[in-house]
What we know:
The structure is a homodimer.
Chain A: H1 38-53, E1 61-62, H2 64-71, H3 75-87, E2 91-94, E3 98-101, H4 106-130, H5 133-152, H6 155-172, H7 176-193, H8 200-218, H9 222-247
Antiparallel strand pairs in A: 1-3, 2-3
Helix pairs in contact in A: 1-3, 1-7, 4-6, 4-7, 4-9, 5-6, 5-8, 8-9
Chain A binds a DNA duplex through helix 1 and helix 3.
Amino acid sequence: MTVHALPASSVPAGSPDPALDPVPLDPASLDGAGRKGRLHGAAVALLRERIVSGAVLPGAFLREKELCEELGISRTPLREAIRTLASEGLVRLAPNRGAVVSALDFSEVEALYQAVGQVEAGAAKLACRVGSDAEIAEIRVIHHQMMILYVRRDLPEYLALNQRIHRGIVTASHNPVLLELWELLAPRVRRARGLANHDPARWDAAVREHEEMLAALTARDGARLSALMEPHYLNGLTVIKAAAERAG
Amino acid sequence: MTVHALPASSVPAGSPDPALDPVPLDPASLDGAGRKGRLHGAAVALLRERIVSGAVLPGAFLREKELCEELGISRTPLREAIRTLASEGLVRLAPNRGAVVSALDFSEVEALYQAVGQVEAGAAKLACRVGSDAEIAEIRVIHHQMMILYVRRDLPEYLALNQRIHRGIVTASHNPVLLELWELLAPRVRRARGLANHDPARWDAAVREHEEMLAALTARDGARLSALMEPHYLNGLTVIKAAAERAG
DNA sequence: GGCCGCGAGCGTGCATACAAATTCCGCGGG
DNA sequence: CCCGCGGAATTTGTATGCACGCTCGCGGCC
């Protein structure tokens, strides 16, 4: 797993000292997901993307001073950003010793997928009961768009729409707590997914499962949709397990 | 809105100005649940207890300066504490407008109970599969202790053991993510429970359900235990709904 | 030669000062 | 009498300085 040892992926190698190049933040990371102030939310988004994408390795320490100079912000918003990441489970906080990017062994991923599957299964039951026709129709539209990307073998865009479908089902449950749990786990899922290169056979199977899921959702068969979604994530676990065993 | 006239439950009324009485924090709140430093963790525990117990009403603003003077700490750890509470869903963060204690109407509680029931149902299945005999035996012990408190009509202690049983089942699932989700939701559950005075009829029904749950757990019948636990919370919802309708 | 104690360096935890944003109150105009 | 507007006060967001705790390396001791 050759991840670059260079901690910063966004800073070009032109300026040797990041402190002399105080670009206040990458404006591209200024998405609407920021919670409070602009700096805090931007720092969360940037660091989260770095961890999820694997730009920083598990076990790496997040030193405040270093990140402050790199991002061009102060320690106060950075500390709050790190705390937010800790609540998402991406980093672990050691008392008086800072934050370390959490490990991601196979058992953790298995537990994560079980939990997400359970959340989605519960949301699926509710979505079939209380979801609006418009919401289900939108999911169907995204599904078909995703199928186009499947035949085109456009994996990144496929995964993006895939996530939107799953999120849409949880949203259709009209249960803000389930949605909150799902949003909390979503970054970790994206991170785990990056561990294994997507297996073509698994991709085909996942598409078939999605076809069945859409049918169950259209029929508003909550029990069937729930039974389909709960193992949906676990089915993909075998690929990750194989990759983890190859990597040691 | 008449939020508590007495801001501090721990500060005796002897000193009119809390700023002149910088008791650094109530040592009783210095429990081990604190995450990082002592001040931050203690502030979290104290504020959380206040919200859960209803000492501060929904919709009340958490003004930083006021709480700082009252707790005798600075704004930095207090802000991190508020952020932790926000991640637990006890307060909501408004950009540039501070933190407000989240509302708790019936639909929110219903969503919360559905979510917690789903998490516990998933954990129940796993606990029956991978839980150790020692863990199940401990749950059985607590169950019997709880039954003693039931016949004694000792509601507070009963609820404490009740929570330990539910937590024990999630722990026995050996799934740290499910446990994390459960711990995240637990304060909100305790808070919602305080809304309604416990109904005797519901108490009897809950005890019968717990008897069935213990039987299913002892038999390691995951499907049955899961089917029992998922509606277990929702059954108690009717009492809260009645209380909410009485209160308007 | 190996083990223990100790001090320097580093990094986090906390406190405080400054700045931006929002809200509320008062005033003038319609 | 109601609405719009401007300024001051309050409150959050950010930056920075100080102090404690931890780690690690060196010197002394067994």
